[in-house]
Amino acid sequence: MSGRTVPHPPAHPPESLFESCSWFYSLCREYLFRDHTPEISRALFPPDGPAPGMRILELGCGPGFYACRLSEEYPQIHTTGVDLSRRLLARAESRAARRSLQNCTFAHGDAHSLPDASNSIDAVVVSRLFLIVAKREAVLSEIFRILRPGGRCFVAEPTSGFRTQIPLGCMWLLSKLSSSPAGKYREPRQADVMTAPDFSAFIHSQPWGSVELQYDGWYQYAVCEKDPDTVAERRTQIVACEALL
Ligand SMILES: C[S@@+](CC[C@H](N)C(=O)[O-])C[C@H]1O[C@@H](n2cnc3c(N)ncnc32)[C@H](O)[C@@H]1O
């Protein structure tokens, strides 16, 4: 993956709440939040498992929970976790090292603008990211751009503002109690949880070939597939137009 940068020690003072409270978020991820690995596997892989060499990106990976889970379960794939928080990336790298994972890497990056080439990634996992990013449509558009035709994206977003507010509120409180400059973080004080109609409209803002939406009590999910024929069709149209000229 060209253009990726290696995590460095964090800049001080941290600009991100996740950078400031990385240990607390990692605890929540490990012990509080639901593990969607089975749903991700069903959504992204055929029943006999992923093809060897499949490249998967986890955007806003935090402590690398899914990148590591998938790499551990499917040694034939390669996962890359991308996040803005260098402290969370360091935790993700330690997690992968503790499990001796050779097929899992992490990189600092902004989901609004990814270095990956267009049509280059087989699958993208995005869990609990859209409720806190500044421009969620721009992030979804980046995902669409980098996915190869036929590539899939799995999105999981919480549905309950109240439940989401508990860890976020704790992080704000902890940052106030620590020496960090509370109030100067890029994350909102309240998570921007989407309603079901907003989630559907948001997901459909990109021209997916197919979209499946699902809801349970606490999460809403989207499995989006980029039309396998998109590129071929456009090429055919261009050739047809050129023939007319
Ligand atoms: C709520 S956490 C979700 C972490 C993980 N995906 C999970 O399921 O627990 C959001 C993560 O997104 C990261 N993040 C926020 N804005 C980002 C951006 N623009 N690009 C990449 N990562 C971002 C944060 O640092 C944080 O680790």
Tell me briefly what this model is:
With 245 residues, the protein is α/β, with parallel strands linked by helices.
Q: Can you give a write-up of this model?
A:
With 245 residues, this protein is of the alpha/beta class. It has helices spanning 17-20, 22-31, 37-44, 65-73, 86-98, 136-146, 161-177, 196-203, 230-244, and strands at residues 55-59, 78-83, 104-108, 121-127, 147-158, 210-215, 219-225. It has one domain (17-244): Rossmann fold, CATH 3.40.50. 39% of the residues lie in helices and 20% in strands. The longest helix is centred in the last third of the chain and has 17 residues, at 161-177. It is globular, with a radius of gyration of 19 Å. Mean pLDDT is 87; it is low at 6-14. Keywords: Methyltransferase, S-adenosyl-L-methionine, Transferase. One of its GO terms (molecular function) is methyltransferase activity. It comes from Tunturiibacter psychrotolerans.
How many distinct folded domains? 1
CATH topology description? Rossmann fold
Task: Give a list of the ligands.
Answer: S-adenosylmethionine
By DSSP (H or I, 4+ residues per run), the number of helices equals: 9
Q: Look at the structure and give the CATH class.
A: Alpha Beta
Structural class: alpha/beta
Query: What share of residues are in beta strands?
Result: 15-25%
